[in-house]
Fold Beta-hexosaminidase.
Amino acid sequence: MRSFTYILLFASSAAAIWPQPVRYDHSDTVLFVKKDVPFYWYEAGARNVGSMADQFPFVFASNSNTGPNPQDNNRLKIRKQYTEPSLSENAENGTQGGVSGDEIIDFAIVSAWKTIFKHNLYPWKFHPRNWDEPSPNQGETTYISRIDIKLISTDPSNVAKPLAGEVDESYSLTLTQEGLATISANTSVGIAHGLTTFTQLFYAHSDGKNFYTPLAPVTIYDAPKFQHRGINMDVARAWFSTSDIKRQIDACAYNKMNRFHLHVTDSQSWPLEIPSMPELSAKGAYRPDLVYTAEDFQHIQRYAAIQGVEMITEIDMPGHTSSIHYAFPDLIAAFNIQPHWDTYAAEPPSGTLKLNSTAVYDFLDKLLDDLLPRVYPYSSYFHTGGDEVNKNAYMFDDTVKSNSSAILQPLMQKFVDRNHDQVRALGLTPVVWEEMLLDWNVTLGPDVIVQSWQSDEAVAQIVAKGHKALVGNYNYWYLDCGKGQWLDFDPSSSADAWPYYDYCAPFHNWRLIYAYDPLSGVPEENQHLVIGGEAHMWAEQTDPINIDRMIWPRGSAVAEVLWSGAKDSEGRNRSQIDASPRLSEMRERLVGLGVGAEPIQMPYCTMEGTVCQLGYTG
Ligand SMILES: *[C@@H]1O[C@H](CO)[C@@H](O)[C@H](O)[C@H]1NC(C)=O
Ligand SMILES: *[C@@H]1O[C@H](CO)[C@@H](O)[C@H](O)[C@H]1NC(C)=O
Ligand SMILES: *[C@@H]1O[C@H](CO)[C@@H](O)[C@H](O)[C@H]1NC(C)=O
Ligand SMILES: *[C@@H]1O[C@H](CO)[C@@H](O)[C@H](O)[C@H]1NC(C)=O
Ligand SMILES: *[C@@H]1O[C@H](CO)[C@@H](O)[C@H](O)[C@H]1NC(C)=O
Ligand SMILES: *[C@@H]1O[C@H](CO)[C@@H](O)[C@H](O)[C@H]1NC(C)=O
């Protein structure tokens, strides 16, 4: 009730943090912040670091006003100080190796500074006409004196590429009335999340030169509900440049998502360079130049990891592989059968890796031996796909010549076992689509994460079998749905398809996405196995022109469900009336960051608080 009262009175002053923190208290003192506000990054562990201090040039005496807090000085040593920070030339691309916690903090401080001072929002859309904008007042204005960054524990060595739950993402944030900000966390990723939240406390003045928070003092404690929070982006059906992909990663990080699933190959194109088999992308990509080179691939993974976002690469197989045909026709059965492709595949062109072929096995050995060592520095996972395998395609497979489950099932078991053995041997944990477990009855290793997309019942079945599950029910979290058909219909069949709805219509409004509870239908004793989920952006009708608005801000609705949980602290479904102005503000912040996110309401609604609602009962 308290939060409703608050919203009715002050909805236009949004106080909007997205996703919603676990605990968030604030008041209404205005503090300004200047571009040269110092960030102090303190030594990890801090209490016994003596010799470490010599390695870093920014160890300060404690007697200046903007210097370290004297109370802390005995315990904590400053690791590094930043004013108007910028990234070094090679920070993004770095070296071939993985990403360290130090690099994550470094990147996060620079990002936070840029977000506050270069990409901030003038919040006119969240105040009524003629609102009283805070302005700096000579003499009376309080400025933020410094921002203290305290890593209070030691990062695990795999901080940038953990398995679910291995990194503590919690953080706490305080901002005193006097202008001292402190962000503490047990890991570098927690620090990055804290800095992200910090930026959301600030607004730009209409003069474009001043920046302030109207919310001091602030106290926040925050931690995610689910360990795996991601977007799945299909870059095979349509081509996206690396900068299009990086923009989605930026948006994931800003929504505190920690996974980015790259569905990088499919039947329509193979845009991923495999250096030991260059013809795969040279012939399988839409154009020989629409390829992610090995260098691009490394760069994308690193760009994600440095923001605390672990990339999960998927090579979908044995279905969804027709594009291999262009380089290696002998490996693919039932390629591009027309006109009745729909008997053999979910989408044209039909085609599937042969299921009992030593040539296919040799190919997969070579593929995974090439690719997985390049995934390993940045991820602990590899996704082997396994959705929508069409049995009829194996009638045309000269190594099988059958569509009988009894014949195909043992071959599929062997296919998956071989792949997963190799994934494990190269140090990674396999992820598969639900069909392998639930439709093909493949016995999977207990380590395998099973990604569900078809139903809540499927999630319940996956966890009942003891596997960790990722949710993403297409009725809620498929972002491609509701645009209508992309197939063309012959006049003889167009009447049946009228008015051309797609299979997963309607369009999933953010409210529908937000209403999805990953735990619904899962008995309490198995809920710990639901490690999180992903929103899916399939690219039949999405390309660089509309990708941003297709994912954002609806992906933010997914991010809040996964970070904050579908229910509030009192166990009630989260309220759209509470979320809507915050999501609108998040949308403005994403736009400021260069992400073309769609509006969710007209300014009238966000300017006037809760006027755009139906059925409100107080
Ligand atoms: C850090 O770890 C401690 C001990 O496990 C825990 O109590 C705390 O909530 C964690 N997070 C923060 C932000 O301190
Ligand atoms: C990083 O690598 C990418 C792709 O290899 C390249 O396009 C980009 O210019 C590089 N960035 C920097 C800062 O070197
Ligand atoms: C699979 O291939 C092997 C070797 O060619 C053959 O002996 C076996 O009969 C095949 N299995 C099926 C189910 O066709
Ligand atoms: C297998 O093929 C036969 C003959 O084409 C067909 O009648 C049957 O429905 C197919 N079975 C499956 C499981 O698709
Ligand atoms: C998996 O098991 C179910 C239930 O026993 C069965 O209906 C289905 O045909 C099996 N699938 C395969 C591919 O064997
Ligand atoms: C809460 O949301 C669930 C869907 O996740 C819905 O089934 C249920 O009816 C809602 N409860 C209330 C009280 O509105």
Q: What stands out?
A: Residues 405-425 form the longest helix (21 residues). Residues 356, 399-400, 407 surround 2-acetamido-2-deoxy-beta-D-glucopyranose (ligand 3) (CB under 6 Å). Confidence is low (pLDDT under 50) at residues 1-13, 46-70.
